[in-house]
Amino acid sequence: MAFFPKLPTYLFLFLVGFGAHQATAQRQIFTHDDTLRGSITPERAWWDLTFYRLRVDVNIEDSTLRGQNEVQYRVLTPHQTLQIDLQRPLKITKITQDGQPLKFKRDGDAFFVELTKKQETGKREAIVVFYEGRPHVAKRPPWDGGFTWKYDSRTDLFAATSCQELGASAWWPCKDHMYDECDSMSFSATLPVPYMAVANGRLRYVSKDYNRQRTFEWFVKNPINNYGVNLNMGSYVHWSEVYQGEKGPLDMDFYCLPENVEKAKVQFKQAHLMMKAFEHWFGPYPFYEDGYKLVEVPYLGMEHQSSVTYGNGFQNGYLGRDLSGTGWGLKWDFIIVHESGHEWFANNITYRDIADMWIHESFTNYSESLFTEYHYGKEAGAAYVLGCRKLIRNDKPIIGTYHVNSKGSGDMYYKGGNILHTIRQLVNDDEKWRQVLRGLNKTFYHQTVTSQQIEDFMSQQTGIDLSKVFDQYLRDARLPALEYKFENNQMAYRWTNCVPGFDMPIRCKMAGKKWQLLYPSTNWKTTPQKNKIAPEIDVHFYVQPLAVAKTGS
Q: How does pLDDT run across 11-55, given as a tens digit for each residue?
């Protein structure tokens, strides 16, 4: 999702409900609906999604939608039943192929379509799904997704979608699993004059005023994940600029309500600072063909591809607060920086299964530190990521349960950022580290990936076997501890509270004199040391405080 902090609710849950959360975290029960949503079912696996042509009519009087989606696909293996998804209370009214109606059966939020035309390997086909109804209204967006309907200070409509965890099928019919992205997409929205519909990609067409209605057609040239598709509606003021980026001129467009123009024109200048920092660290912005947009919405914000949404009150920090407690988080606007960071990690590199959501959130949390470092120096960036440690819970593994649409611990944000900061210490070469980050975005450009792919790539490119590091920090909730003791003019040391075989090197100041790398394992190792001065662990490694071995251990 966009970000984890839900202060002050988050702090309340942490302080009051932490024990109960630990007791129930591993007892989650998954349903048939979870499997239909979260797995690559046989009815999904046989066809490759290629294109969506989505059309939506918005009735603002009763908050309902009526629309259709042409789903184009390529046949991988012949099959005659196809799964499409649309969540209650919306309903599908008709499905056709080549103009002929098809039979379909609903199973929860999944629809199984019986195709009459013979499906042949390699052929390109399409179905058209017609639907209508009142979509789920978000109770606390973006964490509880759906539609957000609001009226601005002039009582005009102000509405937007957000649906990462809930799923795009909360408001339009689609193949609602992250493993398969459309190669490109057309999206048309019809709504009353004078409102504007802002979506992903580039605006291709605006119809003339017909019966006090206008249609806005947007086109996305690049692959896009389902939750990255969004619709924003309001009496927007629009302006644009051109940024000279790594790949040449990049169109940057900005949308806000009329009463916020002056504030937005000042605050949104940070988008240029963001782009400069992230192109340095991660490589070229991944969607030059579709441009970059920053759009005001009636909720906090979200990483919709090429259409980043914003609701941070035109102020620095996270709703005016510094999450790190260091002061550095008040130097920049959290939503502009964080949500835009997702253009590289979420929209360019996308998880195949939400269990691997850390790929989005850990790297993007760390991007906040890298932004700070780029503009304010390495010490400032490090101070920011270390300051966020107080928000880590170490409650359960960061990787969730596969194939049931289940994410892992919210620690994927702040702990995730500190994991990457720790790995950077192992690399100990800033330029090499930057090339690893840029290499990720080049190697997995516009792809959906697994955690294992990212882990293997980082081990290969750093030249360090990081497998046990990832097992410890992603698949285990415990924080490793370096245990030591003195005997016979030697210091003995080992890792405890860790997975079997954990062997991460760590930088320590030995005998109070100099920093050096130790190479502990889960078995005792020794190093000569006559004095009994305890080693000092480099604070940039995210581990427990140093532990004195118990007598006899």
A: 333 333 333 334 334 567 999 999 999 999 999 999 999 999 999
Instruction: Give residue 361's identity as a one-letter amino acid code.
Output: E
Half-sphere exposure for 296 (CA within 13 Å, toward CB): 26
Q: How crowded is the C-beta side of 393, counted as CA atoms within 13 Å?
A: 25
Q: Which domain holds residue 421?
A: 9-29+343-475
Residue with the two structure tokens 């019809």: 190
DSSP string, 287-349: TGGG-EEEEE-SSSEE--TT-EEE-S-S-SBBTTB-TTSSSGGGSSBHHHHHHHHTTTBTTTE
Instruction: Look at residues 475, 501, 533 and tell me which one is the last residue of a structural domain.
Output: 475
How far apart (Å, rounded) are the C-alpha atoms in residues 79 and 48? 12
- Interatomic CA distance for residues 264 and 316, integer angstroms: 12
> Torsions phi, psi of 396, nearest 5?
-160, 170
Q: Which tens digits make up the pLDDT trace of 226-273?
A: 999 999 999 999 999 999 999 999 999 999 999 999 999 999 999 999
Rounded CA-CA distance 314/317 in Å is: 10
Determine the Cα–Cα distance for residues 317 and 405; give it in Å rounded to an integer: 31
Q: What's 154's domain CATH number?
A: 2.60.40.1730
Interatomic CA distance for residues 486 and 232, integer angstroms? 64
- Across 405-426, b (16+ Cβ under 10 Å) vs e yields bbbbbbbbbbbbbbbbbbbbbb
Res 6 pLDDT > 90: no
Number of structural domains (the chain) is: 3
The 3-state secondary structure of 513-552, one letter per residue? CEEEEECCCCCCEEEECCCCCCCEECCCCCCCCCEECCCC
Q: How far is CA 30 from CA 33, 38, 163, in A?
A: 8, 10, 20
Q: What is the CATH number of the domain that holds 419?
A: 1.10.390.10
Domain end marker among 475, 502, 524 = 475
Dihedral, CA of residue 319, residue 195, residue 222 and residue 410, to nearest 10: 30
Averaged pLDDT of the chain: 94
Paired with 296 in beta bridges are 310
**Within a domain: 310:** no
Q: How far apart are CA 251 and CA 272, in angstroms?
A: 11
| 338 domain-assigned | no
Give kind and range of the element (H or E) at residue 94. Answer: strand 91-97
Q: Do residues 347 and 489 share a domain?
A: no
Q: Residue 363's CB: how many other CB atoms inside 10 A?
A: 25
Average of pLDDT values for 363-386? 98
The amino acid sitting at 189 is: A
Note the pLDDT of residue 199: 98
